[in-house]
């Protein structure tokens, strides 16, 4: 009976998608990311200048509106090249390839390079809200997107092997109202990471100006009740 109630209220959707995304993808690629970036940096010493941003930046639009081509989503985001591939035999597939793309993010005088991609399970949530057979409303989609983010955040926080290898970027807007919304959002997170790196030193002059710009109350909050 509890299982049926959960199915009817869509409570299992986001939870299952978050765990599947972690177990089937992030748990595989994130522990190997730093090594891949080290290898890339040795071959291209001037591209990844800011070591504190050597992470996979995962975009989590709560609208679930995902554009397959980041360059079309925002002209200030330009594809640069791919990081070295990881090849594994997985679930019967020989030499399955996992790779990440590097992008140059531009904004006026700022120019940064980082690995960035969308959280692909959100495409499933969006598709379900467009399919009558799923009986999945827009309101369901937004709530499940928030739950997906909170669940994924908690999973990754408990995964020691993934520490320091990712950055979740959740946002409400789709970027339609502002042409360069997405590049601004990514650059804001990149700047935060640089500030956080310097702020670990109490004497750092950046510490007084550090502003993490915590998301508004409508954005996802931690699942655990003991979190601030």
TrEMBL record:
One of its GO terms (biological process) is positive regulation of type I interferon production. The keyword Transcription regulation does not apply. InterPro entries: STING, STING_C_chordates, STING_C_sf, STING_LBD. Residues 12-193 form the STING ligand-binding domain. GO terms for cellular component: autophagosome membrane; endoplasmic reticulum membrane; endoplasmic reticulum-Golgi intermediate compartment membrane; Golgi membrane; perinuclear region of cytoplasm. It catalyses: H(+)(in) = H(+)(out). Belongs to the STING family. This is Stimulator of interferon genes protein. It comes from Nothocercus julius.
């Amino acid at each position: 009976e509890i299982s049926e109630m959960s199915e009817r209220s869509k409570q299992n959707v986001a939870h299952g998608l978050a765990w599947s995304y972690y177990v089937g993808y992030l748990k595989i690629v994130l522990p190997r990311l730093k090594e891949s970036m080290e290898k890339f940096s040795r071959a291209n010493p001037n591209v990844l200048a800011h070591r504190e941003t050597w992470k996979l930046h995962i975009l989590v639009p709560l609208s679930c509106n995902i554009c397959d081509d980041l360059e079309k989503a925002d002209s200030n985001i330009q594809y640069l090249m791919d990081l070295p591939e990881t090849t594994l035999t997985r679930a019967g597939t020989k030499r399955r390839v996992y790779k990440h793309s590097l992008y140059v993010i531009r904004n006026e005088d700022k120019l940064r390079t980082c690995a960035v991609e969308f959280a692909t399970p959100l495409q499933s949530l969006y598709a379900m809200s467009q399919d009558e057979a799923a009986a999945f409303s827009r309101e369901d989609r937004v709530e499940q997107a928030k739950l997906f983010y909170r669940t994924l955040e908690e999973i990754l926080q408990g995964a020691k092997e993934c520490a320091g290898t990712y950055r979740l970027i959740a946002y409400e807007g789709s970027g339609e109202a502002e042409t360069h919304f997405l590049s601004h959002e990514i650059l804001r997170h990149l700047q935060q990471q640089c500030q956080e790196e310097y702020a670990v030193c109490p004497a750092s002059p950046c510490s007084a100006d550090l502003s993490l710009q915590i998301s508004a109350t409508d954005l996802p909050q931690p699942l655990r009740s003991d979190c601030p």
